[in-house]
Write a structure and sequence with these properties.
Layout: H1 4-20, E1 31-33, E2 39-41, H2 48-55, H3 61-70, E3 78-84, E4 88-93, H4 95-106, E5 121-125, H5 137-155, E6 159-163, H6 172-183, H7 185-189, H8 193-196, H9 198-211, H10 213-227, H11 231-255, H12 271-283, E7 288-290, E8 293-296, E9 311-314, H13 322-335, E10 341-347, H14 351-363, E11 372-378, E12 381-382, H15 399-416, H16 425-445, E13 453-454, H17 457-460, H18 468-485, H19 501-510, H20 513-523, H21 527-546, H22 555-579
Parallel strand pairs: 5-6, 5-10, 10-11, 12-13
Antiparallel strand pairs: 1-2, 2-4, 3-4, 7-8, 8-9
Helix pairs in contact: 1-3, 4-19, 4-22, 6-9, 6-10, 6-11, 9-10, 12-13, 13-14, 15-16, 18-22, 19-21, 19-22, 20-21, 21-22
The chain binds one RNA strand of 76 nucleotides through strand 9, helix 13, helix 14, strand 13 and helix 18.
RNA sequence: GUCUCCGUGGCGCAGUGGAAAGCGCGUCGGGUUGCGGACCCGAAGGGCGCAGGUUCGAAUCCUGCCGGAGACGCCA
């Protein structure tokens, strides 16, 4: 184990048990980084009350801290222990221990981060675009954040199932299929622009539906035939799905998102499970008829007039809706997939919907054992005016166009820079693509996923500050050192020695990688990892300024510094990869 | 109306119980032509929407209020 916080937590807990008895072995020792030392244990103050009660006389927190320190075994691990203030225990790690752990990480393919010994099966539902609709900025965040969560979970050894809950079913397909028939199936199969321009296709269908009663009637009939599985209708439906899949995959490839066709389990997948789901809710006496619809009233949810709020399982016309699908999905993930954890990476506005759906699932007994259902809420993307991001014309911003602009702007910034080499057109294009896409992704991943965030090209494509390009640059600059040294990072073995404070600070920071990854996974918050990487880059910069590598005073120092460079590089590249951000070799 | 989320230096954001609230951008003043200046050092600037409360300790928890966003049966 190389994470200082965890190692010290174990030692302090042992000291607590030794000093106050075994019942204190599970107390949280509250170990955290501090400005007064590397780490601080803040448990003494909170023990005043329980110990006073146990011992029958008023306890003093500083005295308690002394008792803990007296039993604390940190030989070789901590070089200095100090009690200050009301009872803070300040811990300074031994340089030798830090160096040894950094050395361990350097020699380890996994950078000292262990895999979970008891992997959990986690389903990450994300992206979830709609068939026959263009992907827009709203999908950007759910796709990127979800992908990062999946990658991070996988790195930690969890059994990750990616689940793209594509909107490929329901009422709109009546009008879409009828419109497809009107313009001709052949055109779609040729991937004709009349279909591949999905926004135009959808809007045309919508407009006819709203203005042409005959078309609307046909559409409704078509929905019924679709849900009944009529073969001809299914074939037409499949045409639409296929066109959309090609389009999704194109976007995913460009974004570097790991989703494939195998990860698609759209709403249609659950069609056959809707009846049994409704039936089970009825059989269990949970669902009831209200205003002609089959509904469940989960306790604690109130509507506009303070009346109970229902989850509609079956509409009064007999049709099913998205609530039914989501319930069927939970049931399936529990009974058939045996998931331990399901993370729904979906927009924050659907919060109430998920709370109610989860609640109904619990009533039905579908949430078994320790199964966790989590809505990882995604905040809206705003324009620089603070309102929902729109085009100048007021329409939704298409993802493809947004990415084009990002890459174009990245190119302009790139050309302004002072490169120490020239690039041919193809190389430049590849770098600029990585920078532009990386900038957009990192901008999204570096803020808390549930906060709304302002989409600002100028900010995200900047090469300074907490941006993707800054981190990419930090990595290429390290690579440049190895090129100049004529060696590879893989050949850097140290040994690592820590003499300069900047070396020590960098090494200590590197040891926090595992904790950052784990915390990002536990909370399903990739920005925690992003923050770690940015701080690592800052720490490296300080090292870079203070500690010459190639012109190090002696050979041993040079080897040590090359090793620190190598470990930093691998940590940055691995971390950025977990976020799905590419790192070009040069830029 | 009810519920949820949010309100942190000029701007954009971290921090969700521990000492004096951090970071980036921007501003001002220095330095540095470097192992890629896409840099470094320093300064000004907030006491965390407001008012109470809990706690040894609150930006973090609770209550109320103000302001913003969103959601609130048969769309997803």
């Amino acid at each position: 184990m190389s994470d200082p916080q965890l190692v010290l937590a174990d030692r302090v807990r042992a000291a607590l048990a030794a000093a106050f008895g075994p019942s204190f072995a599970d107390t949280d020792p509250v170990i955290r980084p501090s400005q007064f030392a590397d780490l601080q244990a803040n448990v003494a103050m909170s023990l005043v009350k329980p110990l006073t009660q146990e011992r029958g006389e008023k306890q003093n927190p500083r005295r308690i801290a002394e008792e803990i320190v007296a039993r604390l075994d940190v030989e070789g691990l901590v070089s200095k222990v100090e009690i200050s203030g009301p009872g803070f225990i300040n811990l300074t790690l031994a340089d030798g221990w830090i160096a040894a752990r950094a050395q361990d990480a350097l020699e380890d393919d996994r950078l000292g981060v262990p895999e979970d010994e008891n992997p959990e099966k986690v389903i990450v539902e994300y992206s979830s675009p709609n068939v026959a609709k263009e992907m827009h900025v709203g999908h950007l965040r759910t796709t990127i954040v979800g992908d990062a969560i999946a990658r991070i979970g996988e790195f930690l050894g969890e059994n990750v199932v990616r689940d793209n809950h594509v909107g490929d079913w329901g009422t709109p397909f009546g009008m879409l299929i009828e419109h497809l028939l009107d313009i001709g199936v052949a055109a779609a199969e040729r991937d004709d622009s009349s279909v591949s321009d999905l926004t135009a296709f959808y809007q045309a269908a919508r407009q006819k539906f709203d203005s042409d009663p005959e078309f609307a009637a046909r559409s409704r009939t078509r929905v019924v035939r679709l849900q009944a599985g009529d073969p001809d209708t299914m074939r037409l439906w499949q045409v639409l799905v296929d066109v959309s899949k090609r389009y999704f995959n194109h976007v995913y490839a460009r974004l570097g998102v790991t989703l494939t066709d195998d990860d698609i389990k759209g709403e249609s997948f659950y069609n056959d499970l809707l009846n049994p789901t409704a039936q089970e809710l009825t059989d269990k006496g949970i669902a009831e008829i209200s205003d002609g619809a089959l509904v469940v009233f989960p306790p604690g949810f109130k509507g506009r007039e303070g009346d109970p709020l229902p989850v509609i399982v079956r509409k009064s016309d007999g049709g099913y809706n998205y609530s039914t699908t989501d319930l069927a999905t939970i049931r399936y993930r529990s009974d058939t997939e045996h998931a331990d954890r399901v993370i729904y990476v979906v927009g924050a506005p659907q919060s109430l919907h998920f709370q109610m759906a989860f609640s109904v699932a619990r009533m039905a007994g579908w949430v078994k054992g320790g199964m966790r259902l989590e809505h990882a809420e995604i905040g809206n993307v705003l324009g620089t005016d603070g309102k929902i991001l729109r085009t100048r014309a007021g329409g939704t911003v298409k993802l493809a166009e947004l990415l084009d602009e990002a890459v174009e702007r990245a190119g302009a910034e790139f050309d302004k820079l002072n490169h120490d080499e020239s690039f041919d057109a193809a190389t430049r294009e590849a770098i600029v693509e990585a920078v532009g896409i990386g900038a957009v992704k990192y901008a999204d991943l570096s803020v808390a996923r549930d906060s709304e965030y302002i989409f600002d090209f100028d900010r995200m494509i900047s090469f300074k500050g907490n941006t993707g390009p800054y981190l990419q640059y930090a990595a290429t600059r390290i690579r440049s050192i190895f090129r100049k040294a004529g060696t590879s990072p893989d050949d850097a073995h140290g040994p690592i020695r820590l003499e300069d404070p900047a070396e020590r600070a960098l090494a200590l920071h590197l040891l926090g990688f595992g904790a950052a990854v784990k915390s990002a996974y536990e909370a399903a918050e990739p920005h925690r990892l992003a923050t770690f990487l940015f701080e690592l880059a800052s720490s490296y910069t300080s090292f870079y300024e203070n500690c010459p590598v190639l012109k190090a005073p002696d050979e041993a120092t040079k080897q040590s510094r090359l090793a620190l460079c190598a470990l930093t590089l691998r940590t940055l590249v691995t971390g950025l990869d977990l976020l799905g951000v590419p790192t070009p070799e040069r830029m």
